[in-house]
Amino acid sequence: MQLFDVYPIQDITIQKALGSTVWDDKGQEYLDLYGGHAVISIGHTHPHWVNRIETQLHQIAFYSNSIRIPIQQELATKLGKVSGKEDYQLFLCNSGAEANENALKLASFHTGRKKVIAFSKAFHGRTSLAVAVTDNKNYVAPVNETDNVIFLPFNDEQALEDCFKKQGDEIAAVIIEGIQGVGGIRIAEDNFLRQIRSCCTKYGAVYIADSVQCGYGRSGHFFSHDFAGVNADIYSMAKGMGNGFPVAGILIAPHIQPKHFQLGTTFGGNHLACAAALGVLEVIENENLLANAAKIGTYLQKELQSIQAIEHVRGRGLMIGFDVPAVLSELKKKLLWEEHIFTGEAKPNVIRLLPSLALTQADATRFINAVKKLSSVSNS
Ligand SMILES: Cc1ncc(COP(=O)(O)O)c(C=O)c1O
Fold first, then answer.
1. Which of 9, 69, 157, 177 is surrounded by the most beta carbons within 10 Å?
2. Cβ contact 79:87 at 8 Å
3. Is the pLDDT assigned to residue 379 strictly greater than 70?
4. In this structure, which residue's CA is closest to atom 7 in ligand 1?
5. Ligand 1: which residue has its CA nearest to atom 10?
6. How far is the CA of 309 from the centre of ligand 1 (A)?
7. Ligand 1: residues within 6 Å at CB?
8. pTM for the whole thing?
9. What is the DSSP letter of 317?
């Protein structure tokens, strides 16, 4: 049997990883500023996280949600404390798309309405509702097409206000990334998020903060939406939550009431996933990783801004993007093959940095020196 070939891949086999370093099968070492697509939050194979999972594995790995699973409440309590959303409720699932799918479904159940507002260049996942609110025709199969989604221009306050004035009583939810990832590191403006909050409150719609990529401390705040100083009704989380162990969830504001059987999943919230997620939060707390993300992110942005050859350096914390001009179109490839540094990208010409929140200043400097070196020589 062959693998279903949907992923264009780099010809590299990673065999070992620790912190922000990975090694291939030939022993070559690389600096990882991509974090397996923003997943590695506390650093690869962090010993505390490994120990948490290992200890749990010897006790019980899985049982269904039909019995008491106290480690779920332990996780909810810790997550409330670290995120500052102590009065929210937690529903656990397995992936970012599933988190958004449940957030949208819950908003529709809660309001009894069907329409959802999403924004240009948004990416919310591949399952049916999540992909319907994703602004990329290539991912939307004919069966996913729906009239229930209204796409508005990102950060356009007038368009949002006009839409709510026209059909506010039909809107179940507004879904927005705090910083668009796949869309090319585009920050949702604080005023825009405040306006979403006030429209949702006024018209009885649910504000969903997709924090799958920009959340979990990546921006320097636990949720990047928090920069706006207003609360969302639902936060979706995934990538950094398990540091590579598949675990995801939604935080739900207290005014949204649960009903038995309205949401559900077999694997969501299993013992092993909760142990991994707790391990992550304990390290985030003990090692002050939010402060580190803010500090190293500021340093990286300042240094990048001083490099003339690259353009539009932007982002928050350790979610940073910059535009690569045509003359340096080989930069990402050269970073990987000549300097042995993994970075992310967003089409057509954005380099995206999504490293571990524990990235050191020395590793950040190694990257800056590599960009300086490669951008001072031509493509050839
Ligand atoms: C903002 C955002 N939402 C949702 C998703 C979907 O997450 P998953 O791939 O875990 O389903 C992603 C994945 O890249 C994402 O970046």
1. 177
2. no
3. no
4. 96
5. 96
6. 31
7. 95-97, 100, 123-125, 177, 181-182, 210, 212-213, 238
8. 0.98
9. T
